[in-house]
Amino acid sequence: MESEEWNLSGVVCSSPSPGNSSLNSTSSKTDMSLDYTYDSSEFDTSLEDSEEEGVSYDNRHLYARACRQFDVIPSHAFVRQVDDKIADVSYSMLETLDIKALCVALTKNYTIQTLDLSRNDLGFKGADYLTQCLQENSYITSLYLASTKLGTDGIAILMKFLKTNNTIEVLDISDNNLTGRHAEVVGEALEVNARLRHLSLSYCGIDEHGCVSISKALAQNMRLKVLDLSWNHLRTRGAVHICQAIGENDCLEVLDLSWNGLGLDGCEALMTSLKANQTLRDLDLSCNRIDLKCLKLLMDGAASNESLQTLKLGKNPVTTEGAIAVLRAIHATPSCRITSLDITGVPVDCEFSKVLEEVQASRDISVRHSENFHKYQVGNIEKLPTLQDYDPVVVLFEYMRQENFRLIDFFRCLDTDNSNTISREELKHVFVTLSIPLTEGGLDDLMERLDTDDNQEIDIDELRKSQKKNMRQMQTMGKWSLAAKQGQSKEKFSHKLQQLVREAVGGRQRKGKVMWRKTAEKIKT
């Protein structure tokens, strides 16, 4: 059987016939057996490529040859995962030629199903190589391209590919510019694509014009199950278009609109849509400028919806009165199916606690909310907050900042069993060792927020993403909820947190530093 040839932007590779494992058969156009010497000390995974020893034709071998061809250093992360179902090479500082070599290897790879290239510099050329690769590879079904600098041309070529593709089910292009025409191109692809199930467009700067395009596609697409539009510019007319499209869509199950600005018009449109929609199960409206007037409209639709199970309304200016109104609206509607409610960041009081007990006595519902602010007041004497009153995620990263740890070093110190993941017990151990108080409920909340893939383990990427998200939230909110309760400025609040962390660690500082020093020495060796 003659060797089969495929082309990737002028690069021709020949795969040998089944009986030839020495890769001696190559194209006359490109010699893929160029001499290249690897220094094994540079890599934590060896890439032997000795044809004299009869190396079998496998995924690593093909990637090694491609790296020689384009004179690039192999990605350690990709080499380790080249035979796995999931290949996560995010944050690997890959550039155009690195992506090209990787795409050459992926064209003949039949094991990888999930590919994460997030936070690499793909650009237009990288997107071009990737789409050519995916035209040949029908095994990859999940593609993560967050913050990859795709640009106008990169988005265009990716969406052109998506129009006819019938294999990609999960696509994340978060943190890529989708203003104006960019979003229109995405909308056009979404209208005709019949395979995509999960689409993430978070942090894309989608404006009013983009909302119109996305909403048109959302109304027509009957395959998409999960859509993330968080951290965009959904305002006024754009928000109305998106919310109206939800009423026309009959397949969407999870929708994230957090950190936008629906306002009164958006909530009114959403109320109407929720009364018509019968598929939506999870709706995130956190930090959306929803006040009491907006909330009344919204709950009119949400409570009457018979499919909605999870509703997130945290960090909205609905006040204690609004928090109580949400509970009463759910309690007063027998057909309401909401079993999980999140109103964190909204101040609550004793009356709220009483209403919550009544609601939970008659229906199975989990409610996440802020602490009762009256506990800080005893008569006319103000009770000072403790670390238990602060967000455990904020406390964790504040400790890391005070100790001047890099994220990777902090992760390795937490990972006491060297498993490259942090377990619940390891997370608990560090809080106990450093004398930082944390309740079991606080630990559960911390794990839930850091363990984004819900596998009961926290990896380095999850910790990195949580740190970045935490920083963005703090900057956007301007004032933290506890600071607002106590009438403190953000600076005073931050200073108090720093002081509490220092005091908590101070009692066990010597022991703590010994633990970190031993771990650091172990890492170096």
**What is the CATH class name of one domain?**
Mainly Alpha
Major β-sheet annotation: 11 strands, parallel
Head-to-tail CA distance between termini: 51 Å
Q: Please name the CATH topology of one domain.
A: Recoverin, domain 1
Given the helix and strand composition, which structural class is it?
alpha/beta
If strands are numbered along the chain, what order do they take across the biggest sheet? 3-4-5-6-7-8-9-10-11-12-13
Tally of helical runs: 20
Sum up the structure in keywords.
525 residues; alpha/beta; Recoverin, domain 1; two-stranded antiparallel sheet; 9% strand; disordered N terminus
Structure overview:
The protein has 525 residues and is an alpha/beta fold. The chain has a domain at 387-524: EF-hand (Recoverin, domain 1), CATH 1.10.238. 47% of the residues lie in helices and 9% in strands. It has 20 helices and 15 strands. α8 runs parallel beside α9. The model is unreliable at 1-56, 376-383, 477-489 and 508-520 (pLDDT under 50).
